[in-house]
Each structure stands twice: as structure tokens, then as C-alpha cells.
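[Discussion] Sanity-checking designs against the backbone

I'm trying to build intuition for which residues belong where. Below is a C-alpha cell string of 194 positions. I'd appreciate it if someone posts a full sequence so I can compare it with mine line by line.
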């Protein structure tokens, strides 16, 4: 066996693997850039329009709203967000879903299909007559898993998912409560999921 040939062969394989990885990253970057400019126009009612049409939450009820920001456009499939184990609707980029529920304790839950991580949850103690607006957003754990999947493929996804799963009980997303001006700004051009 010729050690020179083995070394050249290993160098070529390393170069090919590096080229394939670079090509994969380029394809992912291209997909992100293209999809960022291609978010569909939403036609559902804004939350203000909805409140004018159906009014606020009825007596003894609270309104729970979950929004998916416009900057989450890579894959625009409808995400199933649950409130007390009932689906709220298909949450797509630039939309919101809502449900009116009796005042008291409630639980929001979300897990993207096919993910290996725990479901993301949020406990809520709702007061009658109040509207609660939550933004569903990728947290630090989710960013780590996504970047590992992009840079190291399926192996990176599996390893980072296992590590983050062991780190704590959180899922890869957070339900961030928005109030006052922050809620108004977040809802400015967000429409009801249809």
C-alpha cells in the first residue's frame, strides 16, 4: 500500500466533503433569501378589525392571541398551536390565531412536527375581559439546534437536540407575552389565520 496515494485520496475526500458542505450552506442561504421576499400577502382580519366585528371577550372570558411574526418565513406551513389541548388553528407567517376562554388557568403548547425536542409550553392565569397577546419565537436552544442542523446536517440536528433536551425542560420556542405598545407594534400588519 502506497502511503502517498492514501494521503492524496484522503485529501481529495476532505476537499469533496468541504465542497459539498459549502454547497449545502449556499443552497440553504439561497432558500432563506428567496423565501424572505416571498411571504404571501395575508387577507384575514387584523385584531382591531376582529374586535370591531365580534367585540372583546364576552363576560367571564379572556382572549388569548398567538402571533407568528413575518420574519419566520423559511417554511410557511401552518403550525398547530394548542390552548388547553385544543388546536387554535393553522398559524402561518404573518398571522395570528385566537380563542376566548373562561378566566382562570390555561396552558399554551407548540411543537413543530418532526422535531426531537420537548414541546414548548406556557402557563397562563387569565383574567376576565382581558386580551393576552403572545409571540411565538425561536429561543436560544432552538437557534442552536437549527444552526447545528445547517452546519452538520442530520448528525448535528440529532446531537444538538439530545444535548438541549438534557439541558432543561424548555422546548425550542418561547411564547413571549406582549403588552401595551409592544403588542400594538407586533400586531400592526398581522392578520387572522385563514
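Best answer:
Here's mine. Compare freely.
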Amino acid at each position: 500500500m502506497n502511503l502517498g496515494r492514501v494521503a492524496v485520496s484522503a485529501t481529495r475526500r476532505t476537499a469533496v466533503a468541504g465542497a459539498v458542505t459549502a454547497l449545502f450552506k449556499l443552497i440553504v442561504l439561497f432558500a432563506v433569501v428567496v423565501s424572505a421576499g416571498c411571504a404571501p400577502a395575508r387577507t384575514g382580519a387584523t385584531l382591531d378589525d376582529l374586535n370591531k366585528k365580534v367585540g372583546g371577550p364576552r363576560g367571564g372570558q379572556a382572549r388569548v392571541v398567538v402571533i407568528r411574526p413575518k420574519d419566520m418565513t423559511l417554511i410557511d406551513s401552518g403550525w398547530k398551536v394548542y390552548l388547553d389541548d385544543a388546536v387554535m388553528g393553522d398559524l402561518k407567517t404573518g398571522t395570528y390565531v385566537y380563542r376566548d376562554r373562561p378566566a382562570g388557568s390555561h396552558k399554551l403548547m407548540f411543537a413543530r412536527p418532526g422535531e426531537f425536542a420537548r414541546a414548548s409550553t406556557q402557563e397562563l392565569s387569565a383574567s376576565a375581559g382581558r386580551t393576552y397577546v403572545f409571540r411565538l419565537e425561536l429561543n436560544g436552544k432552538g437557534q442552536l439546534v437549527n444552526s447545528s442542523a445547517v452546519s452538520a446536517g442530520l448528525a448535528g440536528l440529532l446531537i444538538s437536540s439530545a444535548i438541549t433536551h438534557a439541558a432543561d425542560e424548555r422546548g425550542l420556542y418561547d411564547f413571549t407575552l406582549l403588552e401595551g405598545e409592544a403588542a400594538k407594534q407586533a400586531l400592526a400588519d398581522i392578520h387572522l389565520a385563514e
